[in-house]
Amino acid sequence: MLISWAGWIPFAATQAGLWTVKVPAELVWLAEFGPTLSAFIVTWLVYSKTGISNLMKRLLMWKVNYKWYLLAIFITPVFILLSIGIDILFFGTKYDWSLLNDWDKNFITRTEAFTPSLGLISGIVSFMKTGTLATALMFLLLALTNGGLSEEVGWRGFALKEFQRKPYNILLTSLFVAILWAVWHTGTLFWKTMMTSSFSEGLLFAFTYLLQYLLLIFPLSVIYTVLVNGTGGSIFLAIILHAFYNISISVITAAFPGFPMLTFVICMLVFSIILIVALWRNNTYNKCLQSV
How far is CA 209 from its chain centroid? Predict the structure, then answer.
């Protein structure tokens, strides 16, 4: 966490006008690799070369049953469509599906907002403006790296495995990882708000933000736990899930700012509860868990 905050807090200070030094936006992206970098450092200190070797094997573990790829890639779009379906059926909300056609323009605008740039981000933006295929390639690459690779070695590669050494059940393990994930996932906007608010307002904002984010990622954490354990510990599949979650949510919320996020969270929560109940005493799942 400290590695990431060391990048986010100075950038937030410049955005809040509290520091005159220009901090490049690339530092924000680099700071996202805090969980993964921390995982490698702590693994080296505690488990030495053997631990690093095991971590790398799990990071490159891509030969798993195809059903796990289907889960990782399509679980988020399915919940998005289900949430929209409920919104249409029960609340009569109208959706202009043509707005999805602007996904590339929306992503370019979002990336372009990261300023000032040392040249990397501005170069990526220039490349994406050459065509839709270029935008799609960068969208996928950034989703796999900044978000997937930058986080999952820490959350599912290290933290999940450590909590399961106790061993905690699937519910507690997922909850503990989700708490770490939520506390880390503050970002520059969080810190900017904290810097520009009074003490009481900042405290209330932080509590509300972290609670809301925890409610979102706890059911996600359960799904990640099931995925990683079901594949025998594959961090690679966790990265795939993270990437396609980010891509799906980014596209849908940019097109539909009024997307029913609460319905989406409730759908995931119900699904995660079903998973917990179904796998609690599942012998096949428990055998997979022992092999992680």
Answer: 16
At 266-284, the pLDDT tens digits run 999 999 999 888 877 665 5
Domains: count for the chain: 1
> CA Rg, the chain, in Å?
20
Q: Phi, psi (5° rounding) for residue 25?
A: -65, -25
Q: Which residues does 241 contact at the CB level (< 8 Å), separation at least 6?
A: 71, 72, 73, 75, 76, 223, 224, 227
Flag whether pLDDT at 57 surpasses 90: yes
Task: Determine the structural domain holding residue 179 and report its residue range.
Answer: 2-291
